[in-house]
C-alpha cells in the first residue's frame, strides 16, 4: 500500500492556488487559502490522536478475549517467576492479524511501525482487566474438587453434568449432555501450561463414551504442542471461565 501524502504534498496546491488567486481576487482569496491550509494542518496534527482512538476501540472490542488469553498464557514457574512468553506471542499475533489490517484500511498503516510500543501498551491495558469471579485464589486446590467445580459451571450453563469416579473414567473427568450433545472434559488444575498428554486422554475418552465433543479445561494455558494436537483432533482447549457460557451447536453433534 502506498504511503499517504506528506503534509508538504497536501499543502502544495492550496498554497500555490491561493497565492495565484490572491493576485486576481485580492485579500479575500488569500484569506480563504489560509483557512484551507489551517484546516489541513489541524487535521494532520490530530492524526495521532485518531490513530490511538482507533487502536483503543479495536482492543476494547476484544477486551474480554484478550483478558482471558492473558490469564491462560501467563503463569508462575516453580521459582515464582512470571512466565509470559505465551501471552507475548498471543499479543503480537493480535496486533499483526487484527489491529494492523484495521489500521491499514483506515489509512493509518504507516504509523504502526513508529508507534508499535504505544499500540502494545494499549493492548496490554485492555487485557489487564480483573479476572471475573471466582478468583483464582478461590478455586479448589485439589484435582477432584476442581472437576466438581467445572461440572457445576457446566450445570449453570444448562448442561446435565457429572464428575466421574476417580478411576475407570477412561480419560473423562466430567461428562455433560445438553440438547442431545454429549461432552467429555479433562480438567487440569495446574500451575503451568497443560501438555498434549491431556489432549490424548480426552480423545480416547471421546471414543470410549461415544461423545460429540471433547475439551480440556484448565486454569492455566496450554503448550504449543497441545494446541497443535488439539487442532488436529478437534479438541477444545478452554479456561474454566468459558464453561459458564458454553453451549452446543447443531454442527457439534456427530452423525
Automatic annotation (TrEMBL):
Signal peptide: none
Domain Restriction endonuclease type IV Mrr, chain residue ranges per copy: 145-246
Organism for this UniProt entry: Methylobacterium oryzihabitans
InterPro entries: Restrct_endonuc-II-like, Restrct_endonuc_IV_Mrr, tRNA_endonuc-like_dom_sf, Type_IV_Methyl-Rstrct_Enzyme
Any one GO MF annotation of this record: restriction endodeoxyribonuclease activity
Bilayer-crossing regions: 12-42
Pfam families from the UniProt entry: Mrr_cat
GO BP field: DNA restriction-modification system
Keywords associated with the record: Endonuclease, Hydrolase, Membrane, Nuclease, Transmembrane, Transmembrane helix
Annotated protein name in UniProt: Restriction endonuclease
Amino acid at each position: 500500500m502506498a504511503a499517504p501524502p506528506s503534509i508538504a504534498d497536501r499543502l502544495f496546491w492550496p498554497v500555490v492556488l491561493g497565492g495565484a488567486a490572491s493576485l486576481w481576487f485580492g485579500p479575500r482569496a488569500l484569506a480563504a487559502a489560509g483557512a484551507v491550509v489551517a484546516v489541513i494542518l489541524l487535521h494532520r496534527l490530530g492524526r495521532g490522536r485518531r490513530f490511538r482512538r482507533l487502536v483503543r476501540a479495536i482492543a476494547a472490542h476484544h477486551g474480554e478475549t484478550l483478558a482471558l488469553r492473558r490469564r491462560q498464557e501467563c503463569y508462575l514457574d516453580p521459582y515464582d517467576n512470571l512466565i509470559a512468553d505465551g501471552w507475548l506471542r498471543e499479543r503480537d499475533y493480535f496486533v499483526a492479524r487484527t489491529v494492523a489490517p484495521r489500521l491499514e484500511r483506515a489509512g493509518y498503516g504507516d504509523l504502526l511501525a513508529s508507534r508499535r510500543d504505544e499500540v502494545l501498551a494499549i493492548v496490554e491495558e485492555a487485557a489487564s482487566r480483573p479476572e471475573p469471579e471466582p478468583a483464582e485464589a478461590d478455586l479448589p486446590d485439589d484435582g477432584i474438587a476442581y472437576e466438581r467445580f467445572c461440572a457445576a459451571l457446566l450445570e449453570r450453563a444448562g448442561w446435565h453434568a457429572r464428575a466421574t469416579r476417580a478411576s475407570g473414567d477412561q480419560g473423562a473427568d466430567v461428562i455433560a449432555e445438553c440438547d442431545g450433545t454429549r461432552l467429555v472434559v479433562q480438567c487440569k488444575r495446574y500451575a503451568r501450561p497443560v501438555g498434549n498428554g491431556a489432549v490424548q486422554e480426552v480423545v480416547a475418552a471421546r471414543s470410549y463414551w461415544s461423545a460429540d465433543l471433547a475439551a480440556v479445561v484448565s486454569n492455566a494455558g496450554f503448550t504449543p504442542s497441545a494446541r497443535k494436537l488439539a487442532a488436529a483432533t478437534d479438541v477444545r482447549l478452554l479456561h474454566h471461565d468459558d464453561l459458564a457460557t458454553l453451549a452446543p451447536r447443531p454442527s457439534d453433534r456427530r452423525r
